[in-house]
Specification:
Elements: H1 2-19, E1 34-44, E2 61-68, E3 74-81, H2 89-101, E4 109-113, H3 121-127, E5 132-137, E6 145-149, E7 162-170, E8 173-181, E9 188-193, H4 201-210, H5 213-223, H6 235-260, E10 266-267, H7 269-287, H8 306-318, H9 322-330, E11 334-335
Parallel strand pairs: 1-4, 4-5
Antiparallel strand pairs: 1-2, 2-3, 5-9, 6-7, 7-8, 8-9, 10-11
Helix pairs in contact: 1-6, 6-9, 8-9
């Protein structure tokens, strides 16, 4: 029952945000046919009455969530462990994907952005036929053979900082590797993906950097929603905890996003601070002969503000109307800042 409610709630929130033109990937039109998900494991304290495992120990309860990088909405993906035993998240991720493939339409492309632990050449090669693709950071000890370079538009702003885009293989399995050097720090980053070579390499690099947005959702969950402890050691209860946590987060996300678009001349204070910080970084980078990648000046999914969360909680407890507390959130917005973005 709750599984169906969570799905319907997510669909309604997605449609609401889409109908208002909220799309944090609009700078990457080549991704229009993809559902782009940042995924990661999230661990909290086990329930008090969790039984000890065979070794006499109890561990943290763990979950895998996904965050839609187009609209910022959170979804429960899979339970990792209730805390009775230590369990690695990647085998759980693979098992859940295999389960979903039984009912998934393979024409629906889903791109998972995960940390380097997810790299498994054979597994992801097999997932391509199911419409599942991945982006990750390349492991330092990875063994692969260069096959050929992939042509890309070096003059396109999307490909700022890209040094090379190539096809490699491991045991006959092919994939792409992107070498990106940050023009601000001069640090080299290497990414691996199963996306087709038609996707700009700069898009691949930026998506991995956007992966960290899911950590902001986890921070909201622990710091603001106080989801720091498992409700139970029962697996079904923990799955429901995931669903209710995601539904609560998405309600808050939707409310904040709607408040931010009420006046095009105003922005959220956190967005203003982010822009001001970028401009300071830009000036510092110029003194060192570098610059901030202009793609970082695009809109990004911000952490939900504590004020928004308190306002929604108060509205629920007092029965305040949607329009009245949306107006209260709009009153917190500030004038836009002129961006320096260019280099």
């Amino acid at each position: 029952m709750l599984e169906a409610v969570e799905q319907q709630s997510y669909d309604i929130d997605s449609e609401t945000l889409s109908s208002h033109g909220i799309d944090y990937l609009k700078s990457f039109p080549e991704l229009n046919d993809y559902t782009v998900l940042a995924a990661d494991g999230h661990f909290i304290d086990h329930a008090c009455h969790t039984e000890k495992g065979r070794n006499g120990k109890v561990y943290a309860a763990g979950f895998i969530y996904t965050l839609n990088l187009r609209n910022g909405l959170l979804r429960p993906f899979s339970l990792i462990t209730n805390g009775t035993r230590r369990h690695q998240e990647i085998p759980v991720l693979r098992d859940e994907l295999k389960r979903e493939n039984r009912t998934k339409n393979s024409t629906q492309k889903c791109l998972y952005v995960y940390d380097k632990a997810v790299t498994d050449y054979a597994f992801w090669n097999n997932q391509i036929e199911h419409g599942n693709l991945m982006i990750s950071v390349l492991k330092e000890n990875s063994v692969a053979t260069f096959v050929e370079s992939i042509h890309f538009d070096t003059s396109h702003e999307l490909n700022t900082g890209i040094e090379s885009y190539s096809t490699y293989e491991n045991n006959g399995i092919r994939f792409s590797i992107v070498n990106y050097r940050d023009p601000e720090t001069k640090k080299l980053h290497r990414f691996i993906t199963t996306l087709p070579g038609s996707i700009n390499p700069g898009t691949i690099a930026m998506l991995y950097f956007k992966r960290w947005t899911i950590e902001k959702a986890f921070n909201n969950s622990k710091s603001n929603l106080k989801e720091t402890k498992a409700w139970s050691s029962d697996n079904n209860s923990l799955k429901n905890q995931m669903r209710l946590t995601a539904m609560s987060y998405n309600l808050l996300r939707t409310v904040e996003e709607l408040s931010k678009i009420q006046d095009p001349e105003l922005i959220h204070p956190s967005d203003k601070k982010y822009t001001e910080d970028l401009e300071k970084r830009q000036q510092a980078a110029k003194k060192r002969g570098g610059f901030v990648n202009p793609l970082f000046f695009n809109e990004r999914i911000a952490r939900i503000s504590s004020y928004t969360i308190r306002a929604v909680q108060n509205a629920i407890m007092t029965g305040k109307s949607l329009s009245s507390f949306i107006n209260a959130l709009v009153a917190k917005l500030v004038p836009r800042v002129n961006q320096i973005g260019e280099h």
